[in-house]
Amino acid sequence: MATIKELTDIIVRFTEERDWDQFHNPKDLALALSIEASELNQLFLWKPAEQANREKVKEELADVLNYAFLLADKYKFDISQIILDKIQQNAKKYPVSKAKGTAKKYNEL
Amino acid sequence: MATIKELTDIIVRFTEERDWDQFHNPKDLALALSIEASELNQLFLWKPAEQANREKVKEELADVLNYAFLLADKYKFDISQIILDKIQQNAKKYPVSKAKGTAKKYNEL
Amino acid sequence: MATIKELTDIIVRFTEERDWDQFHNPKDLALALSIEASELNQLFLWKPAEQANREKVKEELADVLNYAFLLADKYKFDISQIILDKIQQNAKKYPVSKAKGTAKKYNEL
Amino acid sequence: MATIKELTDIIVRFTEERDWDQFHNPKDLALALSIEASELNQLFLWKPAEQANREKVKEELADVLNYAFLLADKYKFDISQIILDKIQQNAKKYPVSKAKGTAKKYNEL
User: Fold this and answer.
1) What CA–CA distances, in Å, run from A20 to A25, A75, A82, A85, B44?
2) CA C108, CA D84: separation in Å to the nearest integer?
3) What is the interface pTM, i.e. ipTM, of the complex?
4) What would the pLDDT profile of C36-84 be if each residue is shown by its tens digit?
5) Given an 8 Å threshold on Cβ–Cβ distance, is C7 in contact with D84?
6) For residue B17, which of A4, A13, C72, D90 sits 20 to 30 Å off, Cα-Cα?
């Protein structure tokens, strides 16, 4: 199993070998991420969740992660750190005592 | 630095403690991911890439990753494996010889 | 030039003739609208605005409008009324004296 | 009931009075449209379609239409014409005989 650091290196090398870095300003990377997220959603359109094609979900989710890792690299974010920081922040915002079983506040996450 | 497995465990425990798993069918998780991707894009709206607020980019990107990890866990995907598989697939689709420096085909990625 | 009412009638008839109304619950219609908006954005990815293909912009924007009209019809909203109501609301939120030339507050629109 | 032309004039005047036209290049307008579409979708997140707040749907749909009209105006598209053209195109792509009652091909619309 590759680490986050190894995956990032592989993804970055892939784009560098193709000289694609010239297109990868953060604004367009965020847009690309959003477009892949939309393609992921398309797999669920007009149908219940369980009818989505698992193989295609895998591919579209990988595309989302690809751009998320590229964007993190662009800003030199440590992916594991920003996830842990956000969870800590959410833990304060949604204490178990208040948030348990309700999607109400959660919706504004 | 936490591993992908450790991060996933932390994220899953966070939602379980709040009984939020009941809301987390794959269709809504994909939708939530897309909404967070859109909030990330909002940080770049009406401005050039370099004027986006770095701290907020960090938070919104973490939200995207949070849902990406939850969705992967829901399908029991190995995140590092699906990323590596997709890169291999893209390497065939965009060989360096053809793809170098052009965003043309890349746009359809 | 067709009126909003005439366009809505044509769009609704198109879906009824194909028995597609069964798929058109508001949640999936909103999702479809979002997916079309994303396809519209894809035309601008990795390039400056003026390089987007005008003909394709036309088609994707039409797809967005198609779902916007279907969703409005589903809720029996009067499209011209909801647009006028929102403008009135925005006029209060963004008075000319404060909003002129700044995208700051506007960003939260 | 206002016509499409009247609505467009009102929307354009609103942005001109605030000098917001400087931000309204087609790429950012498309992005804004997509962000509003996402806010519309957020109203349906974690819940069945019928639990979405009707008043908020009205507002977010109006925001989507607002940017769709601004983008159409930017390109000098005739909104009723582009909708009618797309329907004609879709009628060829999805003839009633083949498309009736199936979301299969429709999903790729």
Assistant:
1) 10, 17, 26, 31, 20
2) 33
3) 0.94
4) 999 999 999 999 999 999 999 999 999 999 999 999 999 999 999 999 9
5) yes
6) A4
Domains and CATH numbers, chain B: 1-75 (1.10.287.1080), 78-109 (no CATH)
Question: Residues of B with CB below 8 A from A24's CB?
Answer: none
pLDDT per residue as tens digits for the range D4-32:
999 999 999 999 999 999 999 999 999 99
Q: How distant, in Å, are the alpha carbons of A49, A103, B4, C23, C68 from that of D107?
A: 15, 29, 33, 11, 17
Residues 6+ apart with CB under 8 A from A69: A4, A7, A8, A11, A79, B83
Task: Please report where in the chains the tokens 């005047």 appear, as a residue.
Answer: D13
Contacts of D5 in chain C (CB under 8 A): 1
Give the CB-side neighbour count of residue C22, counting CA atoms within 13 A: 10
The Cα C51–Cα B96 span in angstroms is 25
- From A6's Cα to the closest Cα of chain D, the distance in A is 32
Judged by CB atoms closer than 8 Å, whether chains meet at D103 and A47 is answered as yes
Mutate to test the interface with C, among D36, D61, D85 (most CBs of C within 10 A): D61
| Of A63, A107, D24, C98, the residue nearest B23 (C-alpha) | A107
Contact at CB, A45 and C38, closer than 8 angstroms = no
Nearest CA in chain D to B22: D46
Given a contact cutoff of 8 angstroms between Cβ atoms, the answer to whether C62 and D83 are in contact is yes
Q: Which residue in chain B has the smallest CA separation from C44?
A: B107
Query: C42–A35: do the CB atoms touch at under 8 Å?
Result: yes
CA dist B17 → A98, A99, C59, D2, D38 (Å) = 11, 9, 46, 52, 28
Contacts of B38 in chain D (CB under 8 A): 34-35, 38-39
Reduced to 3 states (helix: H, G, I; strand: E, B; else coil), residue A63 is helix
Sign of CA dihedral D40, A30, B67, B88: positive
